[in-house]
Amino acid sequence: MDRIRILVAEDDARLRRALVELLRLEPEFDVVADTGDGETALQQAGVLNPDVVLTDLEMPRLDGIGLIRRTLKLFPGVAVVVLTKFGDDERVFGAIKAGAMGYLLKDAGLEEIAQAVRMARAGEGFLSPALVARVMAEFARASRTGLANRRRFAELSRREVEVLECLAAGMRNAQIADGLSLSEKTVKSHVGAILKKLHANDREEAGRLAREGGIER
Prior knowledge:
alpha/beta, Rossmann fold, Arc Repressor Mutant, subunit A, 6-stranded parallel beta sheet, 14% strand
């Protein structure tokens, strides 16, 4: 049976060394590289072709969520398992949306880490038992929020939806005008109508509502 090739990305050098040492206790695992930043991890993934990337979410140069998205886009055969600290819910939910296969707390033991890696390699999801209740609660909240948002979005015109997608991407009025071949005055008018229909206080809140409702570029 082929060994599972693992790339470890963790900016805490001590924790990274400990993870590598733990993983090397499993004869079926082959740690092909370890690094402290996401950009280097992405480069190494392209060269070393790991089966699984085990990554932290908070790293310099390229954070874990960015690493997940770019890895899955560039190297779709690679699975990603996330390491997170308890209470870092926002990043965990971002990682779920980005497409990671497994989610572990940083204090997980070898048995749990090994199980997550094996399942990810097999194309199966893994969620640390300690995170289950929090993730399920967030899914329930997001479902309620999404339903309310979809009702709001139904009031938007096709052009307003296009402008809202741009707001969700963080674009300014001048950029939106260029991208949609509109005048800035027209964009400003659409933004005002969007804020009114979504009952949003500002463009940032409108963009957040759009992302939560799945309306984004």
